[in-house]
Specification:
By secondary structure, this protein is of the alpha+beta class. It folds into 3 domains: about 10-135, Beta Polymerase, domain 2; about 145-245; about 250-345, Alpha-Beta Complex (Outer Surface Protein A, domain 3), CATH 3.90.930. Helices cover about 45% and strands about 15% of the residues. The protein has helices at about 15-30, 85-95, 110-120, 135-170, 180-190, 195-200, 210-235, 285-290, 300-305, 315-330; strands at about 10, 35-40, 50, 55-60, 70, 75-80, 125, 255-260, 265, 270-275, 280, 295, 335. The strands form 4 sheets. A 5-stranded mixed β-sheet has the order 5-6-4-2-7, with helices on both faces. A 3-stranded antiparallel β-sheet has the order 12-8-13. Helix 3 (about 110-120) runs antiparallel to helix 4 and helix 7 runs antiparallel to helix 8. It starts with 9 loop residues before the first strand and ends in an 11-residue tail after the last strand.
Length: about 350
C-alpha cells in the first residue's frame, strides 16, 4: 500500500466564501439575523486552505441557537454561537488597550474570551446594524497592543510552575502563588537567587513592543525549563538538595543553550523531551546533558559534567559529541546569538 500526501494550497477569505455564508444565514434567519454576525477563523487570517470551514460567529441573545456545520456546494459553513456576555467582552477588548499597572483585567481574561476577541479583531463583519463593533483598524490596533501582554502572562505562569517544581523537588509540598516567596526563602535559604527570579516574574514595566516581550518571554521559558529539569533529575526519587541558582547565562564563543521551546518530562516508565510539535524518548543522562547547556562553550559543559559526579566520570568525548549532535538535530540545543530575541520564531 502506498501513502500519498496531499498539500492544500493556502487560501484566504473570498467573495465566494462570503456569499456561501450569507446564503446559509438567510436560510436560517430570513430577515431577522442575530444582532451581530461576523466571519472569523483561519480563512480570514489567510491561514486556510481549499477545504477550510467558513467560521461564522453569531451572538445568541435568546439562548436558543446551537453550533452546527452546514455544507453548501463543497463549502462548509460552521455556525459558532457566542453569548451576549462574550460578545460584550470581545467588543470591549477590541475597543482599546486598557491594561495598566493597577488594572490587568484585559491580560487576565480567559483563553476562550481572548480567542473570541482575536476572531472579532480580524473578522469580516456581516451584520451589525447598531454599529457596536469598532472599525477594523481600531480592533486590530487594540489586539496588537494586548497580545504581547498575554504572552508575558503565559510565560509568567510557566515560570511560577517551574518554581513550584523546584520547591516540590525539595519536599516543599504546597501549591499556589500566595506563599511562593516565603516558601523559596525557607527552602533555598538566604543565599538563594531570589532577586533574579523576582525580577523575571515582575518585570511588568516592559513596554508592549515585540522585541522586549520576546526577550523576557524567552528568558522566562528557559528558566522554567531549567527548574523543571532540576526537579525531575534531582528531586523525583529523592529529596533534592541543590541550591536555587540564578536563571541567567553568559554566552561564550562556540556556546550552546538548551532550547527554551523544549521541556523535560519524566514518566513512571521513562523520560522524554517535549518540543513544540514533537516529543522524543530520551534517558536521564540525556536530560542532564541537555540542561547543562547554559551558554558555556561545549568544552566547558563537558568538563563540568565530568566533574559533577560518578554518573559522568567516565563520559567520553565521543559519547558527549553523539548526544550533543542528536540534541542539535532535533533542535533541542541551539546557538544563542547576542540578541536572545532571535530565538523567537
Amino acid at each position: 500500500m502506498s501513502l500519498t500526501t496531499f498539500t492544500a494550497p493556502a487560501a484566504g477569505l473570498t467573495d465566494a466564501h462570503i456569499a456561501a455564508a450569507r446564503s446559509r444565514l438567510d436560510e436560517l434567519f430570513g430577515d431577522s439575523w442575530p444582532r451581530v454576525v461576523f466571519i472569523g477563523g483561519s480563512l480570514v487570517a489567510g491561514l486556510g486552505h481549499a477545504w477550510s470551514d467558513i467560521d461564522v460567529y453569531v451572538v445568541d441573545d435568546e439562548g436558543v441557537l446551537r453550533p452546527r456545520a452546514y455544507v453548501d456546494d463543497a463549502m462548509t459553513v460552521q455556525l459558532n454561537v457566542i453569548s451576549p456576555e462574550a460578545l460584550d467582552l470581545a467588543v470591549q477588548t477590541c475597543t482599546a488597550f486598557a491594561t495598566t499597572s493597577a488594572d490587568r483585567t484585559q491580560v487576565d481574561q480567559s483563553e476562550d474570551a481572548l480567542l473570541v476577541a482575536v476572531r472579532l479583531a480580524i473578522g469580516t463583519v456581516l451584520h451589525d446594524p447598531a454599529r457596536i463593533v469598532p472599525e477594523s483598524q481600531q480592533r486590530r490596533a487594540a489586539l496588537r497592543q494586548l497580545l504581547p501582554w498575554t504572552a508575558l502572562r503565559s510565560s509568567e505562569q510557566a515560570l511560577e510552575y517551574g518554581l513550584e517544581a523546584y520547591l516540590t523537588s525539595n519536599d516543599d509540598l504546597y501549591l499556589g502563588t500566595k506563599f511562593l516567596y516565603r516558601r523559596l526563602m525557607r527552602t533555598a535559604g538566604p543565599d538563594g537567587e531570589f532577586a533574579a527570579y523576582f525580577e523575571l516574574l515582575h518585570a511588568g514595566s516592559v513596554d508592549a513592543d515585540f522585541g522586549a516581550v520576546a526577550r523576557l518571554t524567552i528568558r522566562r521559558a528557559w528558566a522554567a525549563n531549567q527548574l523543571m529539569a532540576h526537579a525531575v533529575v534531582n528531586g523525583f526519587d529523592n529529596v533534592a538538595t541543590s541550591p536555587l541558582t540564578s536563571p541567567s547565562f553568559e554566552m561564550l564563543p562556540g556556546g550552546m543553550v538548551a532550547s527554551p521551546w523544549f521541556c523535560p518530562v519524566r514518566y513512571a516508565n521513562g523520560w522524554g523531551l517535549a518540543g513544540p510539535d514533537r516529543g522524543f524518548r530520551v534517558s536521564r543522562d540525556v536530560v542532564r546533558i541537555w540542561s547543562a547547556f547554559d551558554g558555556r562553550a561545549q568544552a566547558d559543559v563537558f568538563a563540568a559534567l565530568r566533574a559533577s559526579g560518578s554518573d559522568f566520570a567516565e563520559l567520553s568525548e565521543a559519547e558527549f559529541a553523539t548526544v550533543m549532535e542528536h540534541l542539535v538535530s532535533i533542535q533541542a540545543l541551539t546557538g544563542l546569538p547576542d540578541d536572545i530575541s532571535a530565538f523567537a520564531r
